[in-house]
Amino acid sequence: MITTTELQAKREKLANGLARCQKSLASLDKYLDSLAVQHLEVASLDKVLETCETSGGRLDAQKAQLTSELNVVDCEIAIESARLRTPHEDDKLRTKVAVGLFAPSAKDVEIALIYAVPFASWTALYDIRVDMDTKENPVTLIYKAAVEQNTGECWDDVPLQLETSTPTFGLDIPELSPWNLHIYQPAFKSSKSVGRGASQQSAPPSGVYYRSRTVPHTSEVPEEESEVPMDHAGAAVSSKGNVSATFRVPGLVTIPCDGDVHNFTIVELSLKAVMSWVCVPKIDTKTHLKARVTNASEYTLLEGTASVYVDGSFISRSVVPAVSPQESFDCPLGIDTSIRVTYHPVIKKLSHSGFVSRSANHLFSQRITVFNTKSVGIDQLKIIDHVPTSQNSAIEVKLTNPALTVPSIGEGTSKNAPKEPQVVKVAKGVKAQWDGVDEPGCEIESLGLDRKLNWICTVPAQGKMNLALEWEVNVTPASTKVVGL
């Protein structure tokens, strides 16, 4: 095998030959350019041109040959350099351990060797399959492990154990440094005076300076599967602590030392889920489908990429967050084209009132139509919209339909603040409420301050539903120009 040093020497020799060839061609061209009529006889012209043509052709062939050989040597150097950078098994298997044993009598001794190796890791992958016709457990989650290792030795027919914990070294409990306050002292800068009458700029008034606190912190595409469902053997959970869990992959596995990703199935879970549909028709009339999935298993789900299938069709890729047993998470399921939402043009009416202080009354009516083309009815369809918010006392906004009470700024701290969320029954199967009421950690006092509301609808199969949003904007005086109306 040719070494890198020999290849570099060969390359240098070829590069020098190529440089000489290029210099000879340049000299030949320069000679032809220097020919003059007064110094060359006509009888000798053919002989000179023939000689130059022969020499030029020979040099061109030599240049092409040297260039080709130089490219081959460059490729050989790149391959050899990559080979030298690749760790070899022998390099990583040279560690020796000497064990000294002392016993009062001869006995059989069994020694278990446990050691840690670098360049071995695994990440979580998921297949989420949703059956819209199943009511009990509509979500099937296939928990996978993407394992890669480049430890220097192949793992042939070994039991594989996966842990959710990551070894951490040197992570101490953070300590708070003193938090001091002091008076801000501005730096005085001298300014050069230009001409008579120029004076130094006065310094800004001093004030109290608060130093901000900082909190230190420490941080740490699957291919589409076949549409035919497969049975998977579940992994045994040997540790069920609140900190980490340990899984054992069924059977024996083989993972070569190649640094490539190898997928193994941990378990297949049938999980409960609540389906919901969300649409913001003012921005986009597409209806988004999502599932609130409850991890009712004993498995801790790590954060990982998920391929989502709905009724056997690949829909999208999403990310599953870290989920503990009995915890829930949201899983987006893409667009549901069978729910058609129409956002009709807004109807505007203008009237005036008052004699001394004339006011302009703007009436707005927005109609939204929902059509369920499914053969089954749907629950939990959320339609989100909003009304404008006044930023001036001369502009008054009133929500007339649905009849939700519009809170005022600062009302959240008053005694008249609502004690429970407002819910208005609009029609059969339709209720209106301020948006955000169903979000975790929502504050009742702040609901409606952004003037966003939603309707929760139950739409029967092949059924249509009309929603109405009406509001009034009063402007005093009427000549006031309102921006954003």
From TrEMBL:
InterPro entries: CHP02231, DUF4139. Residues 193-204 have a biased composition (Polar residues). Residues 193-229 are annotated as: Disordered. It comes from the Eukaryota. Residues 112-403 form the DUF4139 domain. NCBIfam families: mucoidy inhibitor MuiA family protein. This is DUF4139 domain-containing protein.
